[in-house]
Specification:
The structure is a single chain. The protein is 80% helix and 0% strand. By secondary structure, the protein is mainly α. It has one domain (2-122). The chain crosses the membrane at residues 53-73, 80-99, 105-121. Keywords: Membrane, Transmembrane, Transmembrane helix.
Amino acid sequence: MTFLLYLAAALLILVSLAHSYLGERFILIRLFKRDNLPQLFGSSDFTIRTLRFAWHLTSIAWLGFAALLLALASPEFTPTMLLLIIAATFVLHSALALFLSRGKHWSWLLFAVVSVLLIVAER
């Protein structure tokens, strides 16, 4: 079973990296060249930033799942490991949303609160 968990984690890591790279290169950049994107907050900049961080959040989530599978494969597995991995995944979600939206998309705050709640729950 351990080998299968490692294999699944490796596949998630690969698909995550491919998703971010290929999506950015072949989908997002081409999409953002269009002149008919919705204009929120006075320009299409917010729309572009929101689509970009939403796209990459998926990749971060898959990396988080890979980390969970690696934790499950570990002989030192504990429920605390799961909480900390999930908290770290949402810290990354929060940071990406905050950075790419320049704080305008409030999801960063929700992701940060989830992270803090999980860290507090772990103690």
